Amino acid sequence: MRPGCPGTNTQQRRVTVTFRNPIWFGSICAAVLLLCTVPAAASEGSWQVGTAKTEITPDGPLLMAGYASRDTPCSQTLLPLWAKAMVLEDRDHNLALLITLDLVGIDRELSKRIVKQISEQHEISPSGIALCVSHTHTGPVVGKNLGPMHYRLATNEQRRAIDDYQERLQQTVVRLVGLALKNRSPCRLVQGLGHADFAVNRRNNPADQVPARRRLAELAGPTDHSVPVLAVRDQHDRLKVVVFGYACHATVLDSVQWSGDYPGYAQAELERRHDGCQAMFWAGCGADQNPLPRRTVELAKHYGDRLATAVDAVLLTSQMGPLAPTLETIHREVPLALGARPTVDQLQSQSDSGNRFQKSRADMWLQRIEAGQPLPADYPYPVATWVLGGKLRWIFLGGEVVVDYSLRLRDQLGSDVWVTAYANDVMAYIPSRRVLREGGYEGDTSMIYYGLPTVWAPTIEQQIVDEAVRQAAGH
């Protein structure tokens, strides 16, 4: 148990959650020089990049997100949780902000508040702000994300602790951005693509059969084993930032100890290997992908080390392509169609069922209907695109996106396409038309835990792909 954390005998008290002080990278002398002499505007012909990070591990007992079976607040830490920021400024002074969070998810309401505050205080366009969670299943409940599974079933004391954490998180992220903006310096950007193969399509491979199938090269189902890597180097060619992604659930661990799971270990390992570097992970379209086998700390460390080694294999080659200091950002919300909506009688039947999560969702919508709010026909789904150097097209999608999307978008738009999921709003699973037709957890029953009133309409995949293609065309 970390010093200063209350033990289990104090869990009935209201918890005030605090965060540790932000940590900047770079030497003291370099930081002083930057603050005193570097102007806010980018130097002609180069990127300006600023970074900052802060620990966001709860300091008191808090419910853990991701699994319905855990209803005891967590008060112990296996691996610290982090919020990290990177600001990019191109030669025309356009700004983009990447924030990575060791959390299972954030909802639309919190995302909108954070983006609004950052935009107002730091004059960054909302289209250039990407909030990306790692989807670790050993992080805290954040607001009403996965509300029917966590927030609505929590005690009043637990809800107050969740609300306190969410408020502190918002203010911490906004302050972090200010530090990253002050920390800008001339840099160059290069990008490349690596490979790691521990992700397994969980819909097509029973977990207990994976070791044997792997030995026989008989694993089934689509996967995306690519490891996109963005490296930021300063004027002395020192590695300042490495940003990397992978399409796989962060579900190695299911204990009641805070950790960033395998992405947390991968980031920690890269920062250990590269002194003064800030490592930032984003989750790809891995909603139907699991790290298998799993369930031990040793495996979480093992997968983290393998992912870090895959990133290093890219960094150590001479094949990374440079990115000119130009930046374009687009962000729109698509009215993503929902399927047939339940009737009041159907909701009442769900409320009377013995399933507490189904009841939790049904009661939520019955209360809204009674207050005069009709069931929605669609959901405002976020799709964003950054174009770096006129070459790299980086797409940000909300929700838990299955692997079909990254495979299809790269096929349609070209190999220089990265697809980040779990970005800006984690409102539900995002199945492809194939997965929706097949049914199962990702296309059907997962909607209960997120709280949307029904499944998605069959048009979901085409709507999202059409918007990504429009943004690629600059529309």
Binned strand content: 15-25%
Largest sheet: 9 strands, mixed
Structural class, from secondary structure content?
Answer: alpha+beta
The total of beta strands comes to: 17
Topology as a string of helices (H) and strands (E): HEEEHEHEEHEEHEEHEEHHEEEHEEHHH
Oligomer: single chain
Number of domains: 1
Shape: globular
* Number of separate helices: 12
Mean pLDDT: 91
Helix content: 25-40%
List the uncertain runs: 1-18, 20-44
Nearest-angstrom radius of gyration? 22 Å
Distance between the termini: 52 Å
Keywords: Membrane, Transmembrane, Transmembrane helix
Protein name: Neutral/alkaline non-lysosomal ceramidase N-terminal domain-containing protein
Structure, explained:
With 475 residues, this protein is of the alpha+beta class. It has twelve helices and 17 strands. It has one domain. The chain is 32% helix and 23% strand. The strands form four sheets. Strands 1, 2, 3, 4, 5, 7, 8, 9 and 11 form a nine-stranded mixed beta sheet that branches. A hairpin with a 3-residue loop joins strand 13 and strand 14. The longest helix has 27 residues. The termini are far apart. This is Neutral/alkaline non-lysosomal ceramidase N-terminal domain-containing protein. Keywords: Membrane, Transmembrane, Transmembrane helix.
List the helices and strands and how they pair.
Layout: H1 28-37, E1 47-55, E2 82-89, E3 95-101, H2 108-122, E4 129-133, H3 156-182, E5 185-195, E6 199-201, H4 210-215, E7 226-234, E8 239-246, H5 261-273, E9 278-283, E10 289-291, H6 297-315, E11 321-323, E12 327-337, H7 344-351, H8 356-370, E13 378-388, E14 392-397, E15 400-401, H9 404-413, E16 417-420, E17 429-430, H10 433-438, H11 441-450, H12 460-472
Parallel strand pairs: 3-4, 8-9, 14-16, 15-17
Antiparallel strand pairs: 1-2, 1-5, 2-3, 5-7, 5-11, 6-10, 7-8, 12-13, 13-14
Helix pairs in contact: 2-3, 5-6, 7-8, 9-12
